[in-house]
Design brief:
Ubiquitin-like (UB roll), 10 helices, 4 domains, 16-stranded antiparallel barrel, alpha+beta
Amino acid sequence: MVSRRSNSWQGCLAFLLAVHSASILAARGLETQINGLDGPELANARAHLSLARAERQRSMAAWRIRKMARAAPNEIRDALRPFGFYQAQVDVLLIEPAGPDLAWRAIIDVEPGPPVRVSDLDLQISGQAAEDAEFQRWQSEWPLPIGSVMHEPVWGAAWRSLLDMARDRGYFDYRFVERRFWVDPDQGKVDLRLHFDSGARYHFGQLQGAPLPFRDPVIERLTVINTGEPYTVQRVDQQREVLAGSGLFDRIVIEEQQDRDSATVDLVYQLNPRPPNSYRATAGFGTDTGARFQLHWIRHYLSSLGNRLDSGFGVQQRDREFVVRSEYLHPSGSEPGAFLTAGGVARRQRDELRFSNEERRREVFEPFSGSREQFELRFGRLDERRLGPQQRLALEERLFVAVLHERFDALREARFSEENEALLTANPEIENFLKNDTKTLSFGAQWRLPEIRGIGFFSEGYLLEARLLAAHKSLASDVSFAQSHLRGRWHRLFGDRHKLLLSGEIGHTEANVQTLDLALDDRFLAMSITQLPEHYRFKTGGDRSVRGYRFESLSTNRNGANHLQTASVEYEYRVGENWSLGIFYDVGNAFNDWNERKLKRGVGAGVRWYTVIGPIQFDLARALDDADRSGRLHFTIGTRLL
């Protein structure tokens, strides 16, 4: 009796173990294939399909696979309805594995059928938004017109954008009177109904804040929002940007307080004045400049008037250049970006009068080396003008009067070589260029328009700059000239690895040019020298312009010129998180005669490493119009201005 019962239990247990083992061993994996769909419909079907989600599991009971296969048709139909397919035909073929180490296969054939289309559309906007041009534009651009295929994600995005626009434009009491759609799959049509009541539009109310250590006119000129003005979130953002751009505060919080009874939004400012002084030291290196170092000091406010002082000192290894500059800005008028300015720059460096061949840039005679000193004072007006949609662009405009005193003296030290002495003896007219003292009173205007986003490799946007400058002997100047200069840089990302960089500049000057015919032994040189002060002469070539040529080596006889023309195209490919490879083509020159301009070309490739101190850049370039030169290495460390 005991033996029989024991045998019975053993048999049952063996049977259960056999069934369980078979169900596990028979499911060593799962492969799912969906035919008849592609694009977002296929992606959504796989996201809804239990069989597709089960592919990530290594083993599974056979009964569960069969259960999921039975559920697959309804899952596919549910996934296709948001795209307008309500009568899809779905066939599922489940293939069991032929061996214990093989996977199950599910082949699903889908015939989506005809989609339902919009047959009736009822869009209504009531309340004050009915007269708002932005809401009228939204209504005219409705993405699901009559006859279009019903697409539920588009429907949802459309009515949600209506909510976003209502909040952004101050319709805080909005509501949907009705928002729904009816589908008739048999007739293949859908009716849409959307009734939106915006309610009243809110306006800006009181502007409040704790007392600040600045006079009332300072805060008033930094306030761009007027009481009673219709509310928009863009205006609040603009107000925040103006306060941040003033440089007076290190913490800016703007709280919004809504009052439904009066339909107003009060703004409460929480502003912390920043420490009055900030300092910055930067260092860099370039094959053009050698080592360079700068100290920068900003006194953000000198008094309760909000006036400030911006000063700096720089030294550069090349030509032993020293620069000291300072600019004072005094608030002017009621606009936040308007200032009266006064500033000065003092510069001292080693310079040369060069005697280069125009074609090959070689020195025909040894240059004369001397000291060049420049002192400039500027007085003018600075304005920031808001442009573009929602006034997002900031155009900086400067109108100024500049006084320049420039001296060059190669005779003071008189350390001439024998060739220098012989050249000066044979051509005494050179002496006028070896020691000169020029004073210039000029009138000018500058414009700067930046639009820059991102950092490192991912920075993109553009920078446009323009300048007009003129001086005349009848107005306390030693020379007369008129000059215009335009330059721009444009960066564009394509995906997260590709980047295109375009840049160019053009300059034109009306100024007298003096020609010299020099001779020594059997050497001759026809020189062309502009009467422009060296401070205003155009030069190019080097790390930041036409690569493949030495720094500022491209100009008429290498002494600077009246005109300028350059262009560059560069492609970067990001190979690592902070690394990229680049190839480029540069062209340009500076010259005194537009009819005889000879643009020089350079090509090359390089590596960029984006760091916290700015990009470190290695470029190997070849000058295509100087066959006697081999490749030239350009190496820079430091911020690259866009």
